[in-house]
Design goal:
By secondary structure, this protein is of the alpha/beta class. It is about 45% helix and about 20% strand. The protein is globular and about 35 Å long.
Length: about 130
């Protein structure tokens, strides 16, 4: 189902787990988004330096450079680029840790298509940035 609010958005998926990555790709493809994939944090930082992304979906636990470290490095390159943590860690304090490391928001796995799209619209519409 195409989403008019997301049709022109370019998203970076940062996920090393193939089934999770494929799930994200299916949702974004159905919504009409364009996207690219990075399989570790270091690759994500390099892609952000050259890519024109509207938002980053960042797994927290990854090889080479974890999501926390990658988000901090991204903040040095693109201060205003929204970064959403996508993680299985639902314990107390993880959202706060994500925000403290430069991520804008947090989405817990497993999540629904609706919840992901809601977050994407929220953070790419400009209204969330104004109300941060």
């Amino acid at each position: 189902m195409k989403n008019a609010l997301l049709a022109d958005k370019h998203i970076l998926i940062v996920e090393d787990d193939e089934p999770c990555r494929l799930f994200l790709e299916i949702i974004l493809n159905d919504a009409g988004c364009s996207f690219e994939v990075a399989v570790n944090g270091r690759e994500a930082v390099e892609r952000v330096k050259v890519g024109g992304y509207d938002i980053v979906l960042m797994d927290v636990r990854m090889p080479v450079l974890n999501g926390y470290e990658a988000a901090q490095a991204i903040r040095l390159v693109k201060k205003d680029l929204p970064v959403i943590a996508v993680t299985a860690h639902a314990i107390e304090g993880v959202k706060e840790k994500c925000v403290a490391h430069g991520m804008n928001d947090y989405l817990t796995k497993p999540f629904t298509q609706e919840k992901l799209l809601e977050k994407l619209v929220q953070w790419t519409s400009g209204s969330a940035r104004a109300g941060e």
